[in-house]
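Q: Here's a chain of 342 amino acids. Please give me its 3D structure as C-alpha cells.
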Amino acid sequence: MSDLSNPKSWLLYALLACSLALNVVMLLNRTPSDEANEAPAVSAEIETAPAGTGAVTAAAAPDSAEDAAAQPAAAQPEPDSSPIAGWAILHAKVEQSLARTFQLAAGEDGDALASVFTRLFVWDLDLRRDMQAGDSVAVVWRKGADGLPEIAAGSLQSKRLGRTLTAYRWQAPDDRFPSFWHLDGTEAPLRLRDSPIENYEQITSLLKDRPTHKGMDFKTPVGTEVSAPLAGTVTRANWNWSANGNCVEIRYDDGVIAKFLHLSENRVAEGQRVSAGQLIALSGNTGHTTAPHLHYQLDRNDKTVDPLEYHGTLRRALKADQIAALQRDVADFERALDAPAG
C-alpha cells in the first residue's frame, strides 16, 4: 500500500488524475469523422408488396452467380399480416447490364438475384446483347431460408421487343415442380423435345451462358429418372470419375455423342443397345459439382452441339381452367409488378 505522506506518491496520483480528465474531454469532443469509415448506402426503389392472395412457390436459387463488387445489402420488407408479407418489390431502370442493375438496386444480393432473374427471360432475348437504355425491370422477391434470392414474379420492359415480358412462379396441377408462366398460360422457359429428363426444377445453365461449360444443366433432386432421348449404343460409363462422377456416354444412331454426367446410379453398361425413352440412369450430385443436377452434353466430330438446336424446343401451354387458376393465384403479384416505382 502506498504511503500518502510520500511526495512521490502525491505526484503519481496527480499525473493519473490529469490523464483521466484529458480522456474525458477527448471523448466528449469526438466527431463522426473519428468513427470507422462505412460504404455509402445505395439507393433502390424497393417497397413492400401489397396485401393479397399468393399461391406461389418461390424460385430455386441458381448454383452460381457472376463475380462482382459487393454492394451494401438492400432493405428487406418487414413481415406483416398480409398473405404475401415478407416479399419485396424492386423496380429499376437498366444500368449498363442486368448484373450491374441488380448490384445497384439489391446490394449484396444483386448478383444472385440477377442470375435467377435472367433465367426467366433468356429464352426470348439475348440479355447481354439486346438490352437498351430505357429498358426497365421489376421483380417480386425475398431471401429464402438459405439466404439466397427467391423470385415470385418478374417483368422486363424491352425496347428491342417493343413489349414487356412477364413471368410468374406457379405450379401446374400435374407438375412435380413449379415453373414460370406467362399470364396467357404459356410457359416462360422452353423445353427440349425428346428431353433426357422430364421432371426437373429449372434449367440453370445453357451452352451459350459460358464458353467453358459444354453442356446444359437440369437442376433436379438426386434420384430423378434419366432416359435416352434417342436410340443408340452405350460407348462408355464412369470415365474420369473425379470430374464426371457416375456417367454414361451414348452414341446416337446419327453419330452424335451424348454425355450424361453427375449421376447417382447407372442403369446401363458399355456396349449395351438402348432405345429412345429407355431409362438409363438416375440423376445425382457426384463428381465435380456443387448441387444436384444433370449435365447433358452433345458432341459431333469433336465439336460441341447446342442441345436446343439439335433437339428443337417446345413451349407448353395450360388448359383453359388452369389459365384461370394461374391468373387468380398470381393476381396480387401482377398488381405489384404494375405498381408505379417508388
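Q: Can you summarize the key feature?
A: The chain is about 20% helix and 30% strand.
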